[in-house]
Specification:
Blueprint (H helix, E strand, L loop, with lengths): L1 E3 H11 L13 H17 L5 E3 L7 H6 L8 E3 L7 E2 L8 H12 L2 E3 L6 H11 L4 E4 L15 E8 L3 E5 L1 H8 L3 H11 L14 H11 L2 H9 L7 H9 L1 H11 L21 H11 L2 H11 L2
Parallel strand pairs: 1-2, 1-6, 2-5, 6-7
Antiparallel strand pairs: 3-4, 7-8
Length: about 300
Amino acid sequence: MLLDTASLYYRAYFGVPDSVKAPDGTPVNAVRGLLDFIGRLVQDHRPDDLVACMDADWRPHWRVELIPSYKAHRVAEETETGPDVEETPDTLAPQVPVIEAALDAFGIARVGVAGYEADDVIGTLTTRATGPVDIVTGDRDLYQLVDDSRRRRVLYPLKGVGTLQVTDEAWLREKYGVDGPGYADLALLRGDPSDGLPGVPGIGEKTAAKLLDAYGNLAGILAAVDDPKSKLTPTQRKRLDESRPYLAVAPKVVQVASDVPLPAFDPALPRGPKHPETVDALAHQWGLGGAMSRLSSALRP
């Protein structure tokens, strides 16, 4: 089981009231929400391995070089030496170190790699996996990793932690008319304002799905642009042709990396807190006794 950690703690932050605070008054709603979410996932699914994948760089420079608008609207401050600073709610940012400390205290593997997003870590671990993989995320970009033949699916939270949309190939085809790899082509054709991807003007989701159904993939669509006998409308042909510079680089931006140089780590699901004293200290300091206790119980076989 691979967790898109930032996606999940953002959801926890907005899903748990900010009245949940530590004894000193610091909000800890994202921390409690995430710990309870992980506890519920472990309880319901009992994965052999559990990895909290982290955004060491939420806006990698190599993606920005290809498409400068990539996530540009979410930059709070540009930096020359490291990752740009992302716009984050004032009361969420201080909770992230607490989340990291809690994961480490429980012994839940936490993996992030400089220059890469959590999506890329997830893509690499999914590619390397020899058994089934459940990816837990609130980010539809990861639908591209769905693969029934290799037992790869996405668990997408719909409401709280108890309702998860199980995304497999049948669901993708019914909803979007594509399979996992086809979802990446669909996304880059239609664009994604939340990620600053412009897409092809005039090509929305339904048109993109129809084009992919007719021509197979992005390469097939571009071949149709060059084929005067293809059934593209004149407007579609013109817009796709004019978008070639974007379409030449968009796949590398949209597709998650599968070759991230990962550090050595132990992915095994812990059978209880690895550092019980640290768990107790964090629970006391941040007023998280209930959430810590629930996760401890969930981890026990």
